[in-house]
Amino acid sequence: MSPEPAAADIDGLASLVPLDEPERLLASLRRRAGSQPDRIRDIAPRELAAYAWKQQQWREPLEAAGLGQLHLRHAFATAKWEIWLWIRGNRVWDQLSDHLVGRVIRRAGSA
Length: 111
Fold this sequence. Notes:
Helix content: 55-70%
Number of strands: 0
Shape: elongated
Oligomer: single chain
Largest sheet: none
Strand content: under 5%
Number of helices: 7
Structural class: mainly alpha
């Protein structure tokens, strides 16, 4: 287990900006949700966290704060319902992306 980040370490997370919508991932999740909704509801947060981790504007501040991909997965897992609503078309990306930024920052403070 990695050490708990100091308060000063998480200040850089304020630079996290909402991500561009992962349209290819969304299309894949929607297609697979048609036949496996329960499975997709469970794995979508992990797949979306993997997408976010690949984005330099997210990975760098997280790493600077001493947080890894596991932190991101845990934060996204707490937003499973919101992610599912986005997949189903009941939540717009801008709304979800802002929500995910907040989740990551709040969970860093309680890590």
